[in-house]
Amino acid sequence: DGGITQSPKYLFRKEGQNVTLSCEQNLNHDAMYWYRQDPGQGLRLIYYSQIVNDFQKGDIAEGYSVSREKKESFPLTVTSAQKNPTAFYLCASSGVTGEAGELFFGEGSRLTVL
Amino acid sequence: SQQGEEDPQALSIQEGENATMNCSYKTSINNLQWYRQNSGRGLVHLILIRSNEREKHSGRLRVTLDTSKKSSSLLITASRAADTASYFCATDRSARQLTFGSGTQLTVLP
User: Residue B7: what pLDDT?
Assistant: First the structure.
């Protein structure tokens, strides 16, 4: 089935450690996005990519890094510079690049920093 | 920044009743979208309405858009317990990005 796969679903890390969240899609979409969601709040954009080997910062990029070496993959690294990394992270993709089209979301990765 | 804001923050209704959620936004848009999120899951796209449209239907969903008031509403008719979820509006503040509101938590009581 076509869709977006995020892994791991749950992740625990100690303070000061970097962690990488995986996002893979087989929808042949050009655009991919990373959002952060805190309890009871909406989604905030971390990074997005419209095409392979290119990505842009969103509203809260500090302390995060991404790469887009393949169309199917858009991993997110949460670095030790991120002050409050505990959150629910959502990856999304879109087949529309000229406008903000419908987003297809993965099931999320919940990161807890101990 | 939060472009769209939903109202109310929480809504509790009985099964069979209609549920109405509202979204207000600040700047001009090309389209507005509604998404649903079950607890602990990813978001699912429900409906997209363009700025030149006033109303759109999809099954039990009805979305309206009033660009003069910068507001939209989502109506779910004949609600079911399975409709219990958070509902988010999202607006395209630029050509490539969606901005999400903080959501309405809908609880449908059996």
Answer: 87
